[in-house]
């Protein structure tokens, strides 16, 4: 019988922390872990992970509590608690009775007579087993909230680190694109160019220092959150009596760690007017009468500062984002040479992409990622991300409203995007290798 009990108890132990499960989850391969252990060992939800027991891929990262395992662990804990409460070491020295009443005010165990005495009558009391489980559930609820804070901060830290490491290169390339545009304009605009580039460097340097400080704050907050989460986990693993007596102010300290969460820097360069730029582009203006895309096709845009993507689902395939209402358009005219300029109205919508795409992709439904040069805008929460494709690069500019201009230089191997209303440069994709017919393209999504 003892052997069966030992086997039963072994099945209720987490292989990571070697303690009884707390808030157990069972992953797709069938192995179970404490949720806190799972979070700490596989914190990145977007990275492919493998079970530490069988090395099978973890197919998802959000799991429900295994209620059966949790109830079985509760039975074992309560049995252990009752064994202690009835032991000789837990008898009241005055009344020689078991101390089974927990006083929340003094965080001590008392016998029934002591708890109703004059000294303790006004205190908050409860049974030891109910008190322990109540505190453990409080801990689990606090841990869930704290982990969401940790995950949010960790994600922001990764985004901020990427921005910080690439910021100087981005500002430099932006400056080069501005020089290219001014080189095509009259020489008397030299002072405008000088002031424009000077402002770019000044803004770029200020944002760089903000990003550096932000990364440091987020890294420090990550360590504080992880340390607090680990402390809560260790408290949760304590035997019931130790949990009752040692609980202290851990919830207050956990709450204090979660205040003043560092927020990402708004890394965005001011849009500056380049006089005469739109007038020059208008010399190459072409008609852009767009036709609607394939019926029942689903164009979708998704992304954030870590990963961005754009794609098209062909007719008959399920849309991965059924809440989206999607539209795709392209021009009947194609380009194999020369310089061409057109404008597309995006209004104030969030999710769109426009530019040029290889004509063969439209005809043959080939991989979109290898056949387009686009400027895209996607909404993430209350913010927006502007990016270019091929190569995939984030553009730290204000959200464009109204008309977006597209200038294609086929022989020069470049595509330039401009904010028409402000006559400002959004970005320039250089060193493009055009070898096929190109066609103006536009897609947008509403949800």
Quick structural overview:
By secondary structure, the chain is an alpha+beta fold. The protein is built from 10 helices and 18 strands. The chain folds into 4 domains: 2-77, Zinc/RING finger domain, C3HC4 (zinc finger) (Herpes Virus-1, 2-Layer Sandwich); 86-123, Double Stranded RNA Binding Domain; 130-258, no CATH class; 277-446, SPRY domain (Jelly Rolls, Sandwich), CATH 2.60.120.920.
Topology readout:
Layout: H1 2-10, E1 24-26, E2 32-34, H2 35-41, H3 67-85, E3 101-103, E4 108-110, H4 112-115, E5 125-127, H5 128-183, H6 190-237, H7 240-246, H8 250-258, H9 277-282, E6 290-292, E7 298-303, E8 308-313, E9 325-331, E10 339-347, E11 351-358, H10 359-364, E12 372-380, E13 383-388, E14 393-395, E15 402-409, E16 414-419, E17 424-429, E18 438-446
Antiparallel strand pairs: 1-2, 3-4, 3-5, 6-9, 7-8, 9-18, 10-15, 11-12, 11-18, 12-13, 13-14, 15-16, 16-17
What does this structure look like?
This protein has 447 residues and is an alpha+beta fold. The protein folds into four domains: 2-77, Zinc/RING finger domain, C3HC4 (zinc finger) (Herpes Virus-1); 86-123, Double Stranded RNA Binding Domain (2-Layer Sandwich), CATH 3.30.160; 130-258, no CATH class; 277-446, Sandwich (Jelly Rolls), CATH 2.60.120. The chain is 38% helix and 23% strand. The chain contains ten helices and 18 strands. The strands form five sheets. It has a seven-stranded antiparallel β-sheet. It has a four-stranded antiparallel β-sheet with strand order 10-15-16-17. The chain has a three-stranded antiparallel β-sheet with strand order 4-3-5. α5 packs antiparallel against α6, α5 (128-183) runs parallel beside α8 (250-258) and α6 packs antiparallel against α8 (250-258).
């Amino acid at each position: 019988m003892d052997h069966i009990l030992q086997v039963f108890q072994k099945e209720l132990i987490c292989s990571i922390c070697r303690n009884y499960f707390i808030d157990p989850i069972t992953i797709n391969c069938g192995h179970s872990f404490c949720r806190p252990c799972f979070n700490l060992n596989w914190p990145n939800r977007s990275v492919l992970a493998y079970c530490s027991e069988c090395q099978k891929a973890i197919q998802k990262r959000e799991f429900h509590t295994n209620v059966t395992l949790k109830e079985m662990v509760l039975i074992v804990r309560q049995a252990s608690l009752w064994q202690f409460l009835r032991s000789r070491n837990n008898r009241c020295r005055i009344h020689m009775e078991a101390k089974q009443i927990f006083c929340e005010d003094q965080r001590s165990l008392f016998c029934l007579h002591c708890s109703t005495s004059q000294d303790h009558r006004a205190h908050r009391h409860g049974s030891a087993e109910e008190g322990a489980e109540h505190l453990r559930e409080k801990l689990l609820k606090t841990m869930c909230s704290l982990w969401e804070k940790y995950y949010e901060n960790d994600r922001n830290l990764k985004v901020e680190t990427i921005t910080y490491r690439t910021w100087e290169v981005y500002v430099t390339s932006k400056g080069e694109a501005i020089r290219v545009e001014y080189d095509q304009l009259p020489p008397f605009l030299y002072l405008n160019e000088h002031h424009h580039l000077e402002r770019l460097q000044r803004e770029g340097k200020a944002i760089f220092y903000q990003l550096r400080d932000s990364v440091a704050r987020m890294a420090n907050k990550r360590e504080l959150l992880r340390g607090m989460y680990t402390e809560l986990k260790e408290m949760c693993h304590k035997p019931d009596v130790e949990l009752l007596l040692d609980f202290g102010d851990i919830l207050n300290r956990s709450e204090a760690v979660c205040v003043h969460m560092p927020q990402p820097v708004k890394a965005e360069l001011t849009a500056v007017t380049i006089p005469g730029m739109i007038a020059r582009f208008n010399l190459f203006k072409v008609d852009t009468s767009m036709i609607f895309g394939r019926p029942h096709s689903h164009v979708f845009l998704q992304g954030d500062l870590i990963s961005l993507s754009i794609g098209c689902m062909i007719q008959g395939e399920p849309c991965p984002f059924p809440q989206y209402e999607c539209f795709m358009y392209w021009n009947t005219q194609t380009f194999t040479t020369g310089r061409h300029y057109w404008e597309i109205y995006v209004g104030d919508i969030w999710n769109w992409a426009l530019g040029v795409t290889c004509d063969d992709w439209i005809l043959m439904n080939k991989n979109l990622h290898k056949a387009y040069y686009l400027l895209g805008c996607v909404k993430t929460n209350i913010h927006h991300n502007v990016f270019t494709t091929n190569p995939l690069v984030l553009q730290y500019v204000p959200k464009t409203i109204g008309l977006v201009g597209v200038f294609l230089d086929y022989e020069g191997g470049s595509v330039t995007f401009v904010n028409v209303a402000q006559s400002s440069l959004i970005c320039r994709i250089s060193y493009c290798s055009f070898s096929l017919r190109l066609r103006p393209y536009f897609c947008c999504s509403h949800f």
